[in-house]
């Protein structure tokens, strides 16, 4: 049901000279357990075209050969184009890991024809100019599933939005209105700089449009907020690398494992083969929690009791490469940015993952709890400075009065927000859209 995929055309099949990874120096730990999925393979998922909303769907880069008559055909094919009777790939003999047993037949939807990714630095969060293909316009205006999500988003943001919305219940556009609005934005944890910017932008728009009543000003605020938030709106790219290695970080309890579980489900539903790495080797409950998501989604998981999280990550990426997985999701232990030794550990995981795949990690995501407001912004800064973030997942926006923090992030550190969460259920994680968010906040 997700519409976040953004497939890049695969690079020409030029085999890059990626040297076999050198032996991993650090960990001398026992081989991680590699659990094959326990359930029967799920039938191939089909996408409901009604769930994609043209105006909200990301712009796709669509390989010409996949742009068939169905707007979704290319997406389904993207993970389904492998010859069906291909033998299970053997583990990469050159990889300096414990031999990975040949996987049991798993519901691995096929990957695109094996084209090797171009070597190079991990992509940065700064949006690269990309040729876009407009989504065909013959879709319903607002699909029911997205409508349901919008209602949920509105309900979730009510606490943040209600104090802002009450500013516009009067009849006058005067200094008192702007002062009240300033207070409301600051209370919503929008931060001083973003608040100042929004107010200046709003006053300019009011003048320009000769707005005469507060209701019109509210509409113009939604426009100003949309503009401010737009740099955060970006699609997660899956398919440019095989596997796409995604490292997930954050403070304790931010919602990392839950978000990984939801994401796994959505990826699996879209036909991507996923491998999970339980790189939180300290907390047994964290491994178990991830294991439950792996079982539920019939995907493989690599985990290890105790030992080195970097070793687990290395093994997972090596296995992901050997098995032709589409995505490897690395779940790391929660940590505070002030715990310097744990931040060093994250850097090490990153380095070691790069040894397994010179182009990885392709995404380094920070999960932040929207309830923590300005503290979330501090986390973004600290994790970005330490490990270089490429994207964010903002959870728990349901019931928070601090949803304005996204504006603060857009102002101070505009790292793409790939997903936002407004609840604990599977369907409560969705792609971020600037206009939707601004409208939900001010509805
Ligand atoms: N209300 C709400 N709860 C959420 C959301 N996302 C996650 N949670 C809940 O937050 C709690 C913590 O989630 P986890 O996924 O365990 O967090 P974590 O970051 O992996 O935690 P550690 O492994 O301890 O660092 C769980 O009870 C989740 O159900 C959300 O969007 N809204």
UniProtKB/TrEMBL annotation:
Coiled-coil regions, chain positions: none
UniProt-listed PROSITE patterns: SRP54
Record-listed GTP binding positions: 250-257, 331-335, 395-398
Pfam families linked: SRP54 (PF00448), SRP54_N (PF02881)
Disordered as annotated region, ranges: 1-133
A GO BP annotation: SRP-dependent cotranslational protein targeting to membrane
One function term, GO molecular function aspect: GTPase activity
Keyword line: Cell membrane, Cytoplasm, GTP-binding, Hydrolase, Membrane, Nucleotide-binding, Receptor
Catalytic reaction annotation: GTP + H2O = GDP + phosphate + H(+)
Primary subcellular site in the record, as a coarse category: membrane
NCBIfam families: ftsY
Family that this chain belongs to: Belongs to the GTP-binding SRP family. FtsY subfamily.
PANTHER family, per the entry: SIGNAL RECOGNITION PARTICLE RECEPTOR SUBUNIT ALPHA (PTHR43134:SF1)
Protein name: Signal recognition particle receptor FtsY
Lineage: Bacteria, Pseudomonadati, Pseudomonadota, Betaproteobacteria, Burkholderiales
Gene giving rise to this polypeptide: ftsY
């Amino acid at each position: 049901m997700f519409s976040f995929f953004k497939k890049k055309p695969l690079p020409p099949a030029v085999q890059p000279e990626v040297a076999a990874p050198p032996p991993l120096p650090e960990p001398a730990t026992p081989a991680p357990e590699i659990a094959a999925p326990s359930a029967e393979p799920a039938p191939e998922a089909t996408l409901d075209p009604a769930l994609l909303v043209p105006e909200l769907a990301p712009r796709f880069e669509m390989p010409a050969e996949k742009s068939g008559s169905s707007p979704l055909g290319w997406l389904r094919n993207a993970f389904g184009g492998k010859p069906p009777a291909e033998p299970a790939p053997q583990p990469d003999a050159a990889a300096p890991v414990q031999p990975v047993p040949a996987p049991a037949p798993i519901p691995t939807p096929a990957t695109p024809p094996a084209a090797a990714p171009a070597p190079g630095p991990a992509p940065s969060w700064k949006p690269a100019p990309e040729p876009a293909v407009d989504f065909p316009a013959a879709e319903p205006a607002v699909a029911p599933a997205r409508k349901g999500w919008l209602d949920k988003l509105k309900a979730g943001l009510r606490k943040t939005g209600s104090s802002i919305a009450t500013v516009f219940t009067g009849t006058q556009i005067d200094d008192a209105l702007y002062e009240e609005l300033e207070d409301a934005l600051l209370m919503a944890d929008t931060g001083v700089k973003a608040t100042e910017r929004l107010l200046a932008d709003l006053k300019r728009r009011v003048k320009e449009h000769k707005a005469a009543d507060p209701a019109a000003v509210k509409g113009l605020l939604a426009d100003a907020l949309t503009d401010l938030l737009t740099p955060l709106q970006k699609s997660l790219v899956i398919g440019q690398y095989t596997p796409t290695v995604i490292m997930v970080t954050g403070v304790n309890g931010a919602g990392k494992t839950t978000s990984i579980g939801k994401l796994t489900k959505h990826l699996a539903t879209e036909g991507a083969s996923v491998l999970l790495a339980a790189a939180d080797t300290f907390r047994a409950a964290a491994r178990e929690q991830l294991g439950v998501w792996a079982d539920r989604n019939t995907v493989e998981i690599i985990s290890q009791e105790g030992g080195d999280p970097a070793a687990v990550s290395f093994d997972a990426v090596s296995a992901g490469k050997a098995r032709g997985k589409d995505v490897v999701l690395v779940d790391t232990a929660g940590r505070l940015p002030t715990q310097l030794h744990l931040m060093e550990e994250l850097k090490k995981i990153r380095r070691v993952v790069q040894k397994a795949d010179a182009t990885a990690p392709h995404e380094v995501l920070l999960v932040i709890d929207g309830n923590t407001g300005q503290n979330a912004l501090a986390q973004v800064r600290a994790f970005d400075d330490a490990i270089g973030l490429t994207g964010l997942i903002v959870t728990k926006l349901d019931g928070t009065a601090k949803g304005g923090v996204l504006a603060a992030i857009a102002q101070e550190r505009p790292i793409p927000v790939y997903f936002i969460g407004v609840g604990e259920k599977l369907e409560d994680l969705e792609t971020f859209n600037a206009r939707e968010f601004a409208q939900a906040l001010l509805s």
